[in-house]
Amino acid sequence: MTRTRGAAPASHPLPEHCDFTVFGGTGDLALRKLLPALYQCDREGRLPEDTRVLALSRAAYDDDAYRAIARTALAEHVPAEQHDLTVVERLLGRLHHLTLDVTDDHDWHALYGRLKDRRDFAGTVRVFYLAVAPVLYETICRHLGSGGVAADPSRVVLEKPIGHDLASARVVNDAVGSVFAESQIFRIDHYLGKESVQNLLVTRFANTFLEPLWNSQWIDHVQITVSETLGVGDRAAYYDASGALRDMVQNHLLQLLCLVAMEPPLEVGREDVRDEKLKVLQALRPMTPEDVDHDVVRGRYRSGYVEGRPVPAYDEEIAALEAGDGTTETFVALRAEVSNWRWAGVPFYLRTGKRLDRRLSEIVIVFKATPTDVFPHREGLTEPNKLTIRVSPDEGMQLHLTAKEPGPGGYRLRPVSLDLSYATTFANRSPDAYERLLMDVIRGIPTLFMRRDEVEAAWAWCEPILQHWAASGLPPKPYPAGTPGPSAAFTLIERDGRSWQEYL
Ligand code: NAP
């Protein structure tokens, strides 16, 4: 049977009633991402008709005051051409604000009462979105449990970071897991909600031509780049205690690596994808201290120019903070290996950083060169085939081939590319990752969320790197803002006879 595109899978029907509770309803994440995503879902008729959104914070807002804040946030964060006043009013009508300090036991009764006053309490899907500092997760879950509102079909959504290292991730997971079953816990990695990332699964597993080539026999290496132009901005305190490895590599980049390297799942939509991703994480070759020195580069930006504007050094951006030992990295490049049958000997080069020369996230699969050159008298270069998956901006995919330039006499060879741009191929709007992920939470579809064992396996792999950095006390290598990172990141790949792909 064919299923209509966009329809809910039969095993995960859209619930009739939904209470969507946002802890941290006045925060940046809620106003900039969650409300606009809920708006788009409502606009496209994807929300259950009977949906309430309960926004919680310590602020003494009544519903009207909060709705005014939400109206401003929607005006700011929903593109003007998609701004439909009827839908705005409908969404605002669903919104309520509750004043609640989660650390104050007395404040919770209002929330319990609000949730339980439902006629069909047992049949209502309750989503608890924890858009607050992770230090509050344990307190919140404990109260949800003791208040009798955590039972299935309740779901809890956790934002990164899940812990600071393996031990602290286990503490968070234990605390949340003592109230919610694993099937009720949705750990968001918004990269997994991006269309191009999901399309990677489709490209690999709904087509036949790539899969026979998808191994160490034909693939030379893989590059994953997440490059940001922004600095730390308002998140300086969080970032300085975290750094690029914890903030980006442990979650986003390793998740992308998993999707590239995983074996075909039995079926997408069940646990199989997460099972296969876990196997990749478990197959990552652990780093020794010598490996960390040799295969991992960390950097920290100095002042410079980004997109023509002068920007301060990281040290200046965090100057107001008391903390900081000067070793937080704003850039990481590393060489990883997946030690299994399919990938043995294929390096995975990962790099990410702030205040770099451009904003871009992409995966490049670089194939091996042809085994022999049958065009000895050619003009021009033959370059290895590459498949580029552009995650942002301009989501899409490019397959780079070598072609003959038209014309008589000899062979003039030229690299060309087959381009799939989402914006031009699919005229419809490309939804924000949060829209897809919020609807999956409401329907209870876990595939695009990280399971506990994945999070912990990713930490287990990162931990020797963090430990060696802490033990060595060596500072990160400086790089001027607005450049592609420290020169050591280029040495890392060039000593293997390879180079970072030029952005196209
Ligand atoms: P934020 O702007 O600082 O907002 C924090 C929210 O928590 C505010 O609504 C605040 O409201 C509320 N809050 C704080 N203490 C509270 C308490 N004791 N009781 C009840 N509410 C309390 O933070 P954010 O940027 O939205 O981030 C929220 C979480 O998402 C963090 O864990 C962050 O790491 C994660 N995250 C954020 C982003 C992003 O783009 N912002 C991206 C990825 C992950 P009151 O102070 O009024 O109570």
From TrEMBL:
Its EC number is 1.1.1.49. Substrate binds at H190, K194, E228, D247, K354. Residues 22-199 form the Glucose-6-phosphate dehydrogenase NAD-binding domain. The active site is at H252. NADP(+) binds at R58, D101, V102, K160. Keywords: Carbohydrate metabolism, Glucose metabolism, NADP, Oxidoreductase. It catalyses: D-glucose 6-phosphate + NADP(+) = 6-phospho-D-glucono-1,5-lactone + NADPH + H(+). It holds the Pfam family G6PD_N. InterPro entries: G6P_DH, G6P_DH_AS, G6P_DH_C, G6P_DH_NAD-bd, NAD(P)-bd_dom_sf. Gene3D superfamilies: Dihydrodipicolinate Reductase, domain 2, NAD(P)-binding Rossmann-like Domain. GO terms for molecular function: glucose-6-phosphate dehydrogenase activity. Residues 201-501 form the Glucose-6-phosphate dehydrogenase C-terminal domain. Pathway: Carbohydrate degradation; pentose phosphate pathway; D-ribulose 5-phosphate from D-glucose 6-phosphate (oxidative stage): step 1/3. Catalyzes the oxidation of glucose 6-phosphate to 6-phosphogluconolactone. Belongs to the glucose-6-phosphate dehydrogenase family. NCBIfam families: zwf. PANTHER family: GLUCOSE-6-PHOSPHATE 1-DEHYDROGENASE, GLUCOSE-6-PHOSPHATE 1-DEHYDROGENASE G6PD. This is Glucose-6-phosphate 1-dehydrogenase. It comes from Nocardioides eburneus. The lineage of its organism: Bacteria, Bacillati, Actinomycetota, Actinomycetes, Propionibacteriales.
